[in-house]
What we know:
Shape: globular
Number of strands: 13
Structural class: alpha/beta
Distance between the termini: 42 Å
Amino acid sequence: xxxxxxxxxxxxxDGAVLADxxxxxxxxxxxxxxxxxxxxxxxxxAVFFRGMxxxxxxxxxxxxxxxxxxxxxxxxxxxxxxxxxxxTGGIGDKTSLILAxxxxxxxxxxxxxxxxxxxxxxxxxxxxxxxxGYVSQPETELLDRVVRSAGCAxxxxxxxxxxxxxxxxxxxxxxxxxxxxxxxxxSILSKKMAAGLGGLVMDVKFGxxxxxxDIGDARALARSIVDVANGGGLPTVALLTDMNQPLGRTAxxxxxxxxxxxxxxxxxxxxRLWEVTARLTAELLVIGGLAGDVEAARVKVEHALASGxxxxxxxxxVRDLGGPADILxxxxxxxxxxxxxxxAERDGVVAAVDARAIGVAIVALGGGRTRPEDGVDHxxxxxxxxxxxxxxxxxxxxxxxxxxxxxxSAAAAEAAIRAAVAVAGTAPAQPALVAERIA
Length: 439
């Protein structure tokens, strides 16, 4: 007898533990369209409120991973491990753009399956889409060629990789069901397991800009991901990292790509951005057997950056995926027509930041989506963002430089950013940037 979607939804709504067959039926229906958008939204909301047991979580993740093609790199005879990193999302988080080419320069291969913006957070795929000509969702054959030649490919899931997740992900983004440990775990790991990885490092955020603002919730999510991944044969380590302010000096799409390129090519290196990136990269090198311990891995990471090897890998990846061959030497990225400073209303130091509000302001500028079908304005965002503890003032350093499409949206964003940043005489002590390691 057919398993009716509405009955599965009702059972989960009422707190029942779903059988593997019921979970598989919902996932299968998301792929063949026998389950409607409304039913997917209702199922996600039921899971959001009722939760899943660990067996349900594993079954859901496995069904999502197997909803399409599962890559197998074993026949490729790659001379190094297949590795990846994933972040649970934040504001200004462009670590993937830096980490992937560094790992490639150190001997790893990184088929990084990334996502678009979700809720108030930016998406790595949207950032890469700001590069003219870049094919961010290549066919599997092109992905294979680029991973072989460049060592890394920062892309979205191809149409045949975890197709169930693509549909469910888009609906979650606009139905208030993002912040679910069960759904986040399955969404992340389904794509990673389908990518045929040999190792994964997770960056699980906590703080005002994270989906899991409470560190306890972030720890629970990290534990869920590590347990499901390791139980499924994917060696995984997670770091809990602070997202109580934007990571780096930019937030948006094209502006974050520019900051990543500048860092890779020897330009300014924001201390917080680099520390998170270097820690994650080092953990991944150890997982992949490319370094004996984290200290040795850090040496390799620093050398890959300083030697220019990582920048060369990034440039090769962009070229091989259809982008400009001279991406490192010429600015091909889109620019917003309105650029102006956001002045602080009083002298003082940045004492606290509502990073979520900053993310929402960037979405309102056009840098994110309010509906799955919305486009993204890749040029808008913030640069030169003042960090917590730094001095600002009406006639001194601004809170940030605003990049907008027009004066009306600029005015609204300026007001929102001012409201999101507290300026005081002193700044309180901040939580540790990397708070915990979970394995």
